[in-house]
Specification:
Blueprint lengths: L16 H4 L28 H10 L2 H12 L4 H12 L2 H8 L1 H5 L3 H4 L1 H42 L6 H21 L1 H27 L14 H20 L17 H27 L7 H4 L8 H30 L6 H21 L3 H30 L5 H4 L16 H17 L7 H5 L6 H23 L7
């Protein structure tokens, strides 16, 4: 399989500029590494640290909103809870994608050169890496700002357009500060953040569960075709969260090379799955008692007066924790696109773009509609890209070498043909095409139309791209064809 899955041997290679010049230690605790390889001497930590990283990021307002949205879509409580569990099982894929981090000592934005080639991966990072991350940053920032507006209103200040803009900028600044300080700050801050958020949401759970109608069924229960269409749409909505983290190796790459792969995958997946199920489930339970079209206002009657500001602060804190991860990976993606800028600068660029999108989402567009449309539509890209990456990990048996991956020269093993691995690109395109034919969100694909609106975009994209990549790479290996160099 040496031709299509190049042996990542560090012998006889040409180093990129990033690898040739060792990263200097950052001053003041700011992480100095970007997409360059992390040497063994700087590896540290244990895989269980990944739990708090992902748990803190998933106890957030957006998860509460999405859980409530499932009931608003017409599902009964128990149907919604089942959808939440199934959708959050996709964290297993996120865990798998974190496994190459310790092996390569490199972020996902570099590891995926094995999938698409050096040049092809720049396009991949521009779209599925940077653009989608920035969109998620904006959506999460809008969610945090919504809670912060209420806090500002409680002080007696007018919540006008100027105040809203200032609040958005302030939250973004706090988020970007964590991202700029980087990996060490995230690992240090997220355990106490996880504990604080867990305590707040435990109090919220007591208040919500006291009013939950556990036998809730909508006035007009869905059945047959309409039920399956809604269930599949709900699973895609929930799954879009874990699928958006194709960059999970970014947060495991500082672990020692010998870290067990099962531990990396398990702690990553568990850190996302547990809070994902609990917080989304809490949102679904709340929807049986209050109108979750406006969760922040509707939940007020259920909460004690002293707890309301604490709850709002927790919503903001949870979203900051989530967005710090998103901004961190988006900054790495911008570097991997080919921009020779420091990671800190790339993070600030991401923040500027995200703030602009957030202000649009809050001041111009309907927030809930925007959330639903974006999350469901991104599945068209995220499902296939996740599947291709996962299959590559399995085919290579997680054998990745960071210094070799840093080789961007035409003589390097990941140049393929003209800088593009056309097999990987074709597998991704086939998966995206299959997903687009089956989607039913902001537009309806022809297959979704033929099925009466049943959205099979997620399974179609995953299966087609995974099978295509496995077959194309294995066929190329058996044929003995080697990558062509210009």
């Amino acid at each position: 399989m040496a031709s299509t899955l190049p042996d990542p041997s560090p012998d006889a290679r040409t180093l990129s500029a990033e690898e040739a010049v060792p990263a200097s230690r950052g001053s003041g605790g700011v992480e100095s590494h970007g997409i360059d390889h992390i040497p063994d001497s700087e590896r540290r930590g244990r895989p269980r640290e990944l739990f708090s990283v992902w748990a803190a990021a998933n106890v957030n307002y957006l998860s509460l909103v999405i859980g409530g949205a499932l009931v608003l879509m017409g599902l009964s409580l128990w149907q919604a809870l089942a959808v939440i569990v199934v959708g959050n099982l996709f964290w297993l894929l996120t865990g798998l994608l974190a496994v190459p981090g310790p092996a390569a000592g490199a972020p996902s934005e570099v590891i995926t050169r094995t999938l698409y080639g050096v040049r092809g991966n720049r396009v991949n990072n521009a779209v599925t890496g940077w653009l989608i991350s920035v969109c998620y940053f904006a959506l999460n920032l809008a969610a945090a700002a919504t809670a912060a507006f209420s806090l500002v209103g409680d002080t007696g200040l007018p919540v006008n357009t100027t105040v809203k803009a200032l609040v958005v900028v302030l939250i973004a600044a706090l988020t970007l500060a964590i991202s700029v300080y980087g990996h060490a700050a995230i690992v240090r801050l997220y355990p106490p953040i996880t504990l604080a958020l867990t305590a707040v949401f435990a109090v919220l759970a007591v208040a919500v569960l006291r009013h939950t109608d556990f036998g809730y069924v909508p006035e007009r229960p869905l059945s047959g075709h309409a039920l399956w269409a809604t269930v599949l749409a709900g699973v895609a909505l929930i799954a879009s969260g874990p699928l958006s983290y194709t960059t999970s190796a970014d947060f495991s790459r500082y672990l020692p090379r010998a870290t067990p792969a099962r531990a990396v995958a398990g702690w990553t997946a568990f850190g996302g799955f547990l809070p994902g199920v609990l917080v989304c489930g809490l949102g679904a339970c709340a929807a049986t008692a209050v109108d979750m079209n406006d969760p922040e206002s509707s939940l007020q009657p259920l909460l004690a007066a002293w707890f309301r500001p604490v709850f709002l602060l927790a919503l903001v804190l949870g979203t900051i924790a989530l967005n710090a991860l998103t901004a961190y990976s988006a900054g790495l993606a911008l570097q991997a696109v080919g921009l020779r800028i420091r990671r800190q600068v790339s993070v600030l660029i991401d923040g500027t773009v995200s703030v602009s999108l957030t202000l649009y989402a809050l001041l111009v567009s309907n927030f809930l509609d925007t959330v639903g449309d974006v999350l469901q539509l991104t599945v068209v890209l995220l499902g296939p890209s996740t599947a291709v990456y996962a299959v590559d990990i399995v085919l290579r048996r997680n054998r990745y070498d960071g210094p070799t991956l840093a080789d961007e020269s035409p003589a390097g093993p990941f140049w393929f043909t003209g800088g593009v691995n056309w097999r990987g690109a074709l597998a991704l395109c086939l998966g995206v095409a299959a997903s687009a034919l089956c989607v039913d969100t902001v537009y309806t694909g022809p297959l979704a139309t033929a099925l009466g609106g049943v959205d099979l975009a997620l399974p179609a994209g995953l299966v087609v791209s995974a099978v295509a990549y496995a077959l194309l790479m294995r066929t190329g290996a058996r044929s003995g064809r080697r990558p062509e160099h210009p």
